[in-house]
């Protein structure tokens, strides 16, 4: 069974994330969405809300693609999380060259820790390249329309959070 790990904070889940998840489903039999518990980032949504958003949105994708999608919170090293879930690949989305520079360093470190786990990069769809959770939160906080960047359910959660 091909198991892939797609890690992130998903604060909140965006259409860019969903694009990567959808395409990752074509590469694996089981996709584990690793939700990072990163206290340094000070997430807008608590872990439980982020997990619930992902589970709700991915239930439909799982049914459509036939790929098992599992949500797995983690607070340890990414490479240890990959081992914990039995992943043989880590899937990462890239939007721009700046993303690649950071990811390139991460791949090198992860390969030094465990060379048996590959990292696979998926380029964001051109329509989704500008979407960043940080920017979506800022737009929502200032009362802007985020419906082009997130699903209706996530939009509702954002609006309620900033009401």
From TrEMBL:
Principal location class: cytoplasm
Site (Transition state stabilizer): 17
Entry protein name: Phosphopantetheine adenylyltransferase
Pfam families tied to this protein: CTP_transf_like
Named cofactor requirement(s): Mg(2+)
List of residues binding ATP: 9-10, 17, 93-95, 103, 128-134
Transmembrane spans: none
Coiled-coil regions listed in the entry: none
């Amino acid at each position: 069974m091909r198991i892939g790990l797609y890690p992130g904070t998903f604060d909140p889940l965006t259409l860019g994330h969903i694009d990567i998840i959808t395409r990752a489903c074509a590469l694996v039999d089981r996709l584990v969405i690793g939700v990072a518990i990163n206290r340094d980032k000070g997430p807008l949504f608590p872990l439980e809300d982020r997990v619930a958003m992902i589970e709700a949105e991915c239930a439909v994708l799982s049914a459509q693609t036939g790929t098992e999608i599992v949500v797995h919170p983690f607070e340890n090293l990414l490479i240890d999380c990959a081992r914990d879930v039995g992943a043989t690949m880590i899937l990462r989305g890239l939007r721009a060259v700046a993303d690649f520079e950071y990811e390139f360093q991460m791949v090198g470190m992860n390969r030094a820790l465990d060379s048996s786990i590959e990292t696979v990069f998926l380029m964001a769809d051109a329509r989704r390249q500008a979407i960043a959770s940080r920017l979506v939160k800022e737009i929502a906080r200032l009362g802007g329309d985020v419906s082009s960047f997130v699903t209706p359910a996530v939009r509702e959660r954002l609006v309620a959070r900033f009401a």
